[in-house]
């Protein structure tokens, strides 16, 4: 039982490049989330999904896209990376919505130069 | 937008001292969660408080939810180096909203 896994753990991009972050969970959770964490700003929700095939915007969605083709996977894409997207990205999942415990992955540290 | 403010932002204490971390908002939450995050890892849930005035204890950690369900506190008794980490509160409103975190360092 691996919980929530994220790949890759580290990535360096040049401005304008694209990439996809992969999140996988093996707990059969309905809800999945992508957050970014920046110093002094806590965790900010980028996009989330309440079930397979559904996605919704969070607090800071601009510059990101997501897809949830399978219940266990949630992908985060950056089409044209910008230095402002340098951050640590966390994926999380929960059995249901906002009142339920969220289980987090180990994070991906992304640097955009 | 529901905001959660945590204080202090940084706290450095000696082993054996007591401390309190605060989480405040002008919004009412249906529940409030506390997470701890260690370097290089994702946050891990410590506790969820649901009822106004509720107090929960987890060994040396005491969590309290305000009567009006707008604020919460975390008190640690006799802090140990293993308590070092980033403590995050998160309020359940229309969605889960995280505070900025309190970075706690407990020195031996």
Blueprint of the fold:
The complex is a heterodimer of chains A (113) and B (108).
Chain A: E1 4-7, E2 10-13, E3 19-25, E4 31-37, E5 43-49, E6 56-57, E7 64-67, E8 73-78, E9 87-94, E10 103-104, E11 108-112
Parallel strand pairs in A: 2-11
Antiparallel strand pairs in A: 1-3, 3-8, 4-5, 4-9, 5-6, 7-8, 9-10, 9-11
Chain B: E1 5-7, E2 10-14, E3 19-24, E4 31-37, E5 44-49, E6 55-58, E7 61-65, E8 71-76, E9 85-92, E10 96-98, E11 102-107
Parallel strand pairs in B: 2-11
Antiparallel strand pairs in B: 1-3, 3-8, 4-5, 4-9, 6-7, 7-8, 9-10, 9-11
Summarize the structure.
The complex is a heterodimer of chains A (113) and B (108). With 113 residues, chain A is mostly beta strands.
Structural account:
The complex is a heterodimer of chains A (113) and B (108). With 113 residues, chain A is mainly β. Chain A is built from no helices and eleven strands. In chain A, a hairpin with an 8-residue loop joins strand 9 and strand 10. The radius of gyration of chain A is 13 Å and the shape is globular. The N and C termini of chain A lie far apart (36 Å). Chain B has 108 residues and is mainly β. In chain B, 0% of the residues lie in helices and 55% in strands. Chain B has strands at residues 5-7, 10-14, 19-24, 31-37, 44-49, 55-58, 61-65, 71-76, 85-92, 96-98, 102-107. In chain B, the strands form two sheets. In chain B, strands 2, 4, 5, 9, 10 and 11 form a six-stranded mixed sheet that branches. Chain B has a five-stranded antiparallel sheet with strand order 1-3-8-7-6, with no helix packed on it. In chain B, a hairpin with a 5-residue loop joins strand 7 and strand 8 (71-76). The mean pLDDT of chain B is 94. Chain A binds chain B through residues 4, 35, 40-45, 48, 58-59, 90, 92, 97-99, 101-102, 104-107, and chain B through 1, 4, 9, 30-31, 33, 40-45, 48, 50, 88, 90, 92-96, 98-101.
